[in-house]
Task: structure prediction
Amino acid sequence: MSFTDEAQSDVPLLSEKHSGIPPFLLEKARKAKVSVFETRTKPKATRNRLPVIPHGIEEQVFVDALGELGKQLGVENVERNDKPLTDGWYMEHPNTHDLMAVVDEEELVPSAMVYPGSTEEVQQVVLWANKYHIPIFPISMGRNLGYGGAAPRVRGSVLVDLGRRMNKILDISAQDYTCLVEPGVSFFALYEAVKEKGYDHLWVDVPDVGGGSIIGNTVDRGVGYTPYGDHWACHSGLEVVLPTGEVIRTGMGALPGNNTWQTFPYGFGPYSDGIFSQSNFGIVTKMGMTLMPNPGGYESFMYTFQKEEDLDQVIEIIRPLRIGNILENVAQLRHVTQSIAVIGRPRSDFYKGDGTIPADVVHSIVSNFPMGDHSWIYYGMSYGPKHIRQYKLDIIDAEFKKVPGARRIDPATLPADEYFWARDRIAAGVPDIQELRWVNWMPNGAHIAFSPVSPIRGADATRLFELARRRHDQFGIDLFPAFCVGLREMHLIVELVYDRADPRKRRDVLDCLRHLVDDAAACGYGEYRTHLVLMDQVAGTYSWNDGALLKFHEKLKDALDPNGIMAPGRCGIWPKQYRGRGWEMTKTSGENTQGDGVAPPSQ
Ligand code: ADP
Result:
């Protein structure tokens, strides 16, 4: 498809494709697509580095091995990655590479994509990978954008795209408020299914953009914005194909004939689920998830705070309210620069200079916005019937107004397309796609996150904010910080937005991030999640007792995956075949993601 055809083609619907858009968001998606392609200047890629073959295997042996797999899965379910890379956009994302490439886009690419249709077929893929010592990399939907998208860590891995054919909602229990899903079920799809069944008493917790899969988001420990925001904490029960091909069910799922797999996560004995999240120890083929009861009413609110220095006081106010559940959801405290970027216009519409956009420009722009000038903006939601909400809202109001200049913005004054309403829908479990819009800040906009965890304390927030500001200024990158407040901790999410077609911008962003990770670690802050290219560095910061935790992970890896085939290097865990061969990416790796081969199978 030509670039223009691609830009003009319609957005696939959920009824046509597992990764499609629900009808109620179609118009919004169409508009988002137009604005993405308006700012795109990146030419269609040619492939300069073909063929892509897994390390340590002859091309013909690989081709024959794929042929063998094709006989098992059907030839149409085995595809080589040898065509020009098509970026698409969020709703039509590629599984051939990282849409938000931060290194050369031909670096983190699979050699082939395979589409198993059942747990048994996933087992077949795993056994095949062991037979040929071919690395495989599972994805559910591959929309983990900002953290690597669909890309594998090891170039030439065979991508196991689970979502395309394994996308059934296996159960929604109206009695237990739970569901059981396959990897290709998106938040969009689950939301639509709950509505279709008329289960108004059930809510789905959705992330900022609802197109990701429930399993992919949860195993990577993503968050949503209702009180059920910690997805990993809300899951119950996994079915996993191990790297040697056996299938297990965790928790109560191990008990034949049970009816509690989705209601009691632990079962008996060690709680093994943890090793299947942010790891490379297995492929999750089914997962249970708890659903939130409809609270019987809800109401969003928004406060603005005038000065950047208010951050300390605001966070100190948030902590006891959040731990005490007066502030009930995973809310966001966002910086003013984001209030501008989220409207979806390119930065050049506002400022054409180099370096970061100056504060006086930011404040003069935002003064004309419906919420008026501010430095920080808090988006929250109160749940329950009116009288219960009012009790909490009064406390929140009294507390936030202790900050000089704090203002509660009356939602009735805000237009229907104001970002506030997207946050309102998300906090009420209705998926949206508006969040994408700030990616248009740069032409060929891409994003990658710096996401350290801290306690909910003013001093920590200020320290992290200043640390981020310093490095962003140094590299001339606009700063987009948002504090997402969990129950006793906060994730600071700083999205670095860059032009992915510009190698210099990519390098600056990556250099900036590498400094940020080290700066934060030096102060005792660690990332909660990271992009493929930063995984080694981040894992290295969790180094207490001479790296004892990573050594433990390596021990598990070698025991569970003796041939080292399952997502080598993911989350900094390398199997023995790769260790000591320079695969780890560090400050000096530049764009090179690859080491010096793998040990031959006999070792
Ligand atoms: P999303 O579904 O939100 O688009 P992805 O499919 O990109 O998320 O998954 C995020 C990351 O989690 C992937 O990079 C992959 O390593 C891991 N992952 C996703 N699905 C599975 C799964 N079913 N089993 C094991 N790991 C998975």
Q: What stands out?
A: The chain has a mean pLDDT of 96. Residues 138-144, 148, 150, 162, 183, 212-213, 215-217, 219-220, 283-284, 567, 570 surround adenosine-5'-diphosphate (CB under 6 Å).
